[in-house]
Design goal:
The protein has one domain. The chain is mainly alpha-helical. It starts with 24 loop residues before the first helix and ends with a helix. It is 52% helix and 0% strand. The longest helix is centred in the middle third of the chain and has 27 residues, at 60-86. It has six helices and no strands.
């Protein structure tokens, strides 16, 4: 759904993102499970779903943040699932944020740049 490596036009999203006649299962899961956790008090997705358009429920910055969170943490979630299956526990490093660094740094420059590009992609 979203890629770390942009295409030649610096798009991190596929060209058909949000242009389906029927949304994919991945997109539906993202909008119904991940996005409501971004700003639940403001979005109130479960009250508004089916009544309002997604663009009226979520802002561009909300959606971009949700997509960057996926890029940042999806491999961690997959690794945790593998740990439960295999019993082998490993160190998992997030892509753009290091909460264990001790220096209280926020998002890396690369993460912020990708977020900004995704915002621009979504606005188009």
């Amino acid at each position: 759904m979203v890629s770390m490596k942009p295409d030649d036009q610096k798009n991190h999203l596929p060209k058909d993102y949000r242009r389906w006649t029927e949304p994919t299962e991945d997109f539906r899961f993202f909008m119904e499970s991940i996005m409501p956790a971004i700003a639940p008090h403001r979005c109130k997705f479960h009250e508004k779903k089916g009544i309002r358009k997604l663009s009226e429920i979520y802002t561009v910055s909300d959606e971009a943040f949700g997509l960057v969170v996926l890029l940042n943490e999806l491999h961690c979630w997959e690794e945790k699932a593998n740990e439960k299956e295999t019993g082998v526990i490993g160190k998992i490093q997030k892509t753009f944020v290091n909460g264990r660094s001790g220096n209280k740094q926020g998002w890396s420059i690369k993460g912020v740049n990708i977020y900004n590009r995704i915002c621009k992609n979504l606005q188009k």
